[in-house]
Amino acid sequence: MTQYRDILRMHNRGISQRSIESSLHCSRHTISKVIKRAQELELTWPLKDDLTEDRLAALFSPGFQCRSHMSHQMQRRLTAK
In total, how many domains does the chain have? Predict the structure, then answer.
């Protein structure tokens, strides 16, 4: 599952990209792209309540693939069956 909301929340709190990378298992490059795209879209924290995960995902291009390590393992197991 893409973690745009968590990246933006952590960035807003002043957490470094390196720390976000470690916590969410995303590359700093991906985190940087998410932050840049959010700025382009003028998204500010806190996000509006009506900005669901689906709407957030639609705002970012499909190329943003930031999945937690656990989710990636689960996805591999599910697709292996």
Answer: 1
What is the rounded CA–CA span in Å between residue 31 and residue 46? Answer: 18
Range of the domain at 17: 4-80
Distance of CA 9 to the CA centre of its chain: 10
Q: How far apart are the first and last CA of the chain?
A: 20
Nearest to 2 by CA among 22, 30, 29: 30
Q: What local confidence, expressed as pLDDT, does residue 69 receive?
A: 44
Angle 21-48-4 from CA coordinates, rounded to 5°: 20
Closest CA relative to residue 11, chosen from 49, 26, 50: 26
